Amino acid sequence: MIDTSPFAVELPASDEPRPARVRVLCLGNELLADDSLGSVVAEQIRRFAPPGVEVVSTPEAGFHLLDYVLDTFFLIVIDTVITGSTPPGTLYELREQEFRTSWGGSPHYIGLHETLSTARALHLAVAENVVLLAVEAADCSTLGGQMNPAVRQAIPMVLDRVREMLEAAGVPRAGAVQC
């Protein structure tokens, strides 16, 4: 049966070991109010991520992300954004080609898009499939601030989408018996 959903990913069959066929990259600083979403989500994904799925949580940005976008086939990026166009807690789901045009200047100056573009221009082994799950935040700058309740309520939606994407990509569930 062929899955025709827009987020289905066909992982290449290969006998050669790959560093990470699927990587979930959770961005954000756990010390900064809503920006801590990435580290909270990463902790919860690690509880259900099957073997072959690497979960990374980092506060790094810009070209420091280069190591995380390489040597994987399918990259799921989790982050917060502040667009001001939707209420906090709104979940955005974008393929790489959809987030090429940013909503404004990156607060990191070099963002995920620029890092992916640079890696591709250098012919590096960049993830072939990139999906961004971003949650609209209210405050990503208050040191020690609490996560906005609407942003916190978006966490189960993010986790559900990650599970669905892993399933659509054909990643066996943890503990599943393969025949």
CATH topology value: Rossmann fold
Please state the structural category.
Answer: alpha/beta
Report on the biggest sheet.
5 strands, mixed
The number of helical segments is: 5
The CATH superfamily is: HybD-like
Average predicted local confidence, pLDDT:
82
If you had to describe this structure to a student in words, what would you say it looks like?
A five-stranded mixed sheet has the order 2-1-3-5-4, with helices on one face. It is globular and about 40 Å long. The chain has a single domain (20-168), classed as Rossmann fold. Helix 1 packs across helix 5 (155-168). It has helices spanning 37-48, 66-69, 112-121, 149-153, 155-168; strands at 20-27, 53-58, 72-81, 91-95, 129-136. By secondary structure, it is of the alpha/beta class.
Offer a quick outline of the entry.
It contains five helices and five strands; from the N terminus they run E-H-E-H-E-E-H-E-H-H. The chain has 179 residues and is α/β, with parallel strands linked by helices.
Question: Which descriptors would you attach to this protein?
Answer:
single chain, 179 residues, disordered N terminus, globular, Rossmann fold, alpha/beta, five-stranded mixed beta sheet
Blueprint (SSEs and pairs):
Layout: E1 20-27, H1 37-48, E2 53-58, H2 66-69, E3 72-81, E4 91-95, H3 112-121, E5 129-136, H4 149-153, H5 155-168
Helix pairs in contact: 1-5
